[in-house]
Amino acid sequence: MRIQYALVTGSSSGLGYEITQYLLEEGFIVFGASRSETDIDHPKFIDLDVDVTSEESVQQMYDEIGKETYGLHLIVSNAGIFEMSSVLETESDVFLNHLKTNTLGPFHILKHGHDFTIENVTHIVHISSIAGKKGFENVSAYCASKFGLNGLIESCREEWKSLGVRFSTLMPGAIDTPIWENLSDDFERSKMLDPEDFIQVFDMVVKSPPNMQFSDITFLHKSGKLE
């Protein structure tokens, strides 16, 4: 069985943690990138302290990855933040932090990850959101950052066509992760997707034939968009 290397940003919690566990079970050697320690003890897991908003930090991360491998078979850009407030109540620094983490961060991962792409092999998967396709009230900063992320992905996909790498973008609806514990109690979490639902879709994307990519795959709880 050939060795496969994966990078997952935001590996310490939420979907990033679930993705990392899944990939380890699938036999990948996984580099987990996060600002806090990832609580995973596995012989094929390499924990890296990374702030994706810092270009220098991302460069240092790739320097560490370069000590282990020349290329990455899978790059999962997942790190992100999500806060809720109306436009009038959103502070400028909160808005900017969303752009720095959810848009600039993936830009850094792509820009400095270019040298680790394997021609006709590497699959780059971004975890975006339905909020990158439709605006929702009280999440203007998040929506703006995800709309921007999708534009970044589309441009990079066109620029890197000659490399033969795949770009897949997952745009789920609300998922019942710990992030909701610090937000409004008004949402019915029973109407959210489970992390296991997400992993089913992720599994399909990762195991898809090498000639396929999913430029925009949207999936929701059967009850529809969270209101």
The major sheet is characterized as: 7 strands, parallel
The count of strands amounts to: 7
Helix-strand sequence:
EHEEHEHEHEHE
> How many domains?
1
Q: Tell me, briefly, the overall form.
A: globular
Poorly predicted runs: none
Based on CA atoms alone, the radius of gyration comes out at 17 Å
Q: Give the N-terminus to C-terminus distance in angstroms.
A: 46 Å
How much of the residues is beta strand, in percent? 15-25%
By DSSP (H or I, 4+ residues per run), the number of helices equals: 5
> For this structure, what is the CATH class?
Alpha Beta
Strand order of the largest sheet: 3-2-1-4-5-6-7
Can you identify the CATH superfamily?
Answer: NAD(P)-binding Rossmann-like Domain
Structural class: alpha/beta
Helix content: 25-40%
Write structural notes for this entry:
This protein is of the alpha/beta class. It has a single domain, classed as Rossmann fold (3-Layer(aba) Sandwich), CATH 3.40.50.720. The protein is 34% helix and 15% strand. The protein is built from five helices and seven strands. The protein is globular, with a radius of gyration of 17 Å. The protein starts with a strand and ends in an 8-residue tail after the last strand.
